[in-house]
Amino acid sequence: MKVLIVEDEEMLNNIIAKRLKVESMIVDQCYNGEDGLDYISTSSYDVIVMDIMMPKMDGHAVVQQMRAEGNKTPVLFLTAKDALEDKVSGLNLGADDYLVKPFEFDELIARIYALARRGRNQAVEDIIAGPLRINHKSRSVFLKDKPLTLTAKEFDLLFYLASNPNIVLSRQQILDHVWEYDYESYSNLIDVYIKDLRKKVDIDETKKLIQTVRGVGYVFRTEE
Q1: Rounded Cα distance, 10 and 177, in Å
Q2: By percentage, how much of the chain surpasses pLDDT 70?
Q3: Is the pLDDT of residue 156 over 80?
Q4: Cβ(2)–Cβ(112) under 8 Å?
Q5: Domain span(s) for CATH 3.40.50.2300 in the chain
Q6: Confidence at residue 210, expressed as pLDDT on a 0 to 100 scale
Q7: Are 75 and 104 in contact (CB under 8 A)?
Q8: How confident is residue 224, by pLDDT bands cut at 50, 70 and 90?
Q9: Of 7, 20, 89, 221, which is least packed with CB atoms within 10 Å of its CB?
Q10: Which CATH architecture group holds 2-119?
């Protein structure tokens, strides 16, 4: 799971990031609304944890712009304001949950997991693509109704590609979501994993599910 933290209190930001990484989450951090919007526009996240009162651009404005652009990533607001009207206002602007400071980290983590499950129907439903059936909750893959054996990272890679059907994903986007690496340092990592994954899932020579877009990245193609 990949999470973005947008929080201007640097110490709190770092503590949250440390706790989420213990949960094996991939975490990006920024400290104001403008930078948060830049991160959101250039990468994909499962959940965004966002303060409301921030410099340059507050959390309300960030979420409004996100939703106006069609970005439906679940957002959890962190704020010191606990009045009912403040909560209602944030939720009406497009936030998905609201946690008042100070908070217990166990509750924060539980809410992040809940938002991630809510944000993707694949957590409870199968992804069907031709002969392939993928279930995120059980981390199982079936090829023509026969179970397919994948490594943990092969499953994460396949699930990310299949969750974005017919969308060309750059190598950097894939690294950002599946691994916490910089592309320049791991330039051939994805290509190696894609090659191994294709051997397992692309058995139909006439129609390849995982296709290369030269000079850009890869696409999980389901369109005829």
Answers
A1: 24
A2: 87
A3: yes
A4: no
A5: 2-119
A6: 92
A7: no
A8: low
A9: 89
A10: 3-Layer(aba) Sandwich (3.40)
